[in-house]
Amino acid sequence: VALGQAPNLAIFGCDHPTPDGTPIRDYVHVSDLAAAHIRALEVLDAGTVRNDTLNLGSGSGFSVAQIVETARRVTGHAIPTVSADRRAGDPPILVASGARARTILGWNPTESSIEAIIGSAWKWHKEHPHGYSESREV
Predict the structure, then answer these.
(1) Looking at CB atoms within 10 Å, which of 28, 33, 117, 132 has the fewest?
(2) 74-110 tens-digit pLDDT
(3) Any idea which fold 23-76+92-126 has?
(4) What HEC string does 59-117 produce?
(5) How far apart, in whole angstroms, are the C-alpha atoms of residue 121 and residue 70?
(6) Beta-carbon count within 10 A of 23 CB
(7) pLDDT of residue 134
């Protein structure tokens, strides 16, 4: 929407039992996710863990309305929204604990500011308005 590729952003469910009615989700920067995966490979390679299941989360969340407001500030664009019906099975709050990842991998998200996460995504999307579908030189 901020790039002008869509007229508005649909917010699915504005009637959740959350402070502003919109769903709350956990957001982790892609660099932090990549670092966790690299650390997991290192731990597996060292043989200290054979296999395990870990959540990669910040342990806190932001509502969709908070994300939209932050995106408006970061991008400098209005980002019009429309309310849409809830999606089936969509929980009001979905936040992951990264406690086991901290213990097993020694991982903590370092880019936890929602402004930094959105700013990084905005920079990438401005440079790649059609995603990776554009031809790229390697």
Answers:
(1) 132
(2) 999 999 999 999 999 999 999 999 999 999 999 999 9
(3) UDP-galactose 4-epimerase; domain 1 (3.90.25)
(4) CCCEEHHHHHHHHHHHHCCCCCEEEECCCCCCCCEECCCCHHHHHHHCCCCCCCCHHHH
(5) 12
(6) 24
(7) 59
Read off the amino acid at residue 25: R
Q: Are 92 and 16 in contact (CB under 8 A)?
A: yes
Residues lower than pLDDT 50 in the chain: none
- Report pTM: 0.84
pLDDT at position 135, please? 56
- What residues contact residue 29 under an 8 Å CB cut-off, 6+ apart? 109, 110, 111, 112, 116, 117, 120
7: part of which helix (H) or strand (E)? none
DSSP assignment of 21-73 equals: SS-EE----HHHHHHHHHHHHHHHHHTS-S--------S--EEHHHHHHHHHH
What interhelical angle do 114-127 and 64-75 show, nearest 10? 60
Residue 64 corresponds to which amino acid? Answer: V
